[in-house]
Each structure stands twice: as C-alpha cells, then as structure tokens.
Specification:
Mean pLDDT: 88
Low-confidence stretches: none
Strand content: 15-25%
Shape: rod-shaped
Number of helices: 1
Helix content: 40-55%
Strand order of the largest sheet: 1-2
Number of strands: 4
Number of domains: 2
Length: 109
C-alpha cells in the first residue's frame, strides 16, 4: 500500500509561490528547515529540507545520544579528579606525618 503525507499539521504549505505586486514570490514556512549531518541511527548522510515538526523525533534521538556522551565524559572527568584529589590528600597526610615525626624528634632533644 502506498503511504502519502497528510500535509502540514498547522494547515500551511512548506513552500508556495504566490504573486505579489505582479511578481512571483516564494513564501516559505519558518518551520521548513534544512537538516545536514548524519542520521543518529543509520549514520546515513542527510542534507534534506523538511518540516521542523517532522524532524523532531530524529533530532530528539540525536540530542539524547549527545547528552549520554556528555554525561559519560563528565563522569570520566569526575573519576580522574577524584583520583587526583585522593593522591593529593595522601601526599598531604604523608607530609603531615613527616612534620609530626620531626617535631617529636625535635622535642626529644
């Protein structure tokens, strides 16, 4: 069975040529946009014009993937910062023990 688009949910046309003051003018819906990039599921290159409403599911999937990747990068950075902080605290504790031992030796003399 053939499937066809039912048209704009807003009741408009994406592009329409109208005559204005004796000249032909292209009227384009503000929601008619060009999307370029890779499809988030198939990695297929995309360079197509279409309604922003129709693009929303694909763009939402892409946004979710980017958010997930950013979260993973932030978690990785956090883990490295915790490691660094632990190393620094261990160094401080070691230095504190050295100073305390030096003070004990100094007081014994």
């Amino acid at each position: 069975m053939e499937v066809k688009s039912a048209g704009c949910p807003l009741g408009a046309k994406c592009e329409e040529v109208r005559e204005t003051n004796g000249e032909q003018v292209m009227f384009r819906c503000d929601w008619y946009i060009n999307v370029r990039g890779k499809h988030p599921q198939s990695e297929e290159e995309i360079d197509k014009w279409g309604c922003a409403i129709a693009w929303m599911p694909m763009l939402t999937i892409e946004n979710t993937q980017q958010t997930r990747q950013a979260g993973a990068a932030i978690e990785s950075l956090r883990n490295e910062m915790v490691k660094g902080q632990n190393n620094f605290l261990n160094l401080l504790q070691s230095r504190k023990r050295q100073i305390e031992l030096a003070n004990i030796d100094h007081h014994k003399q």
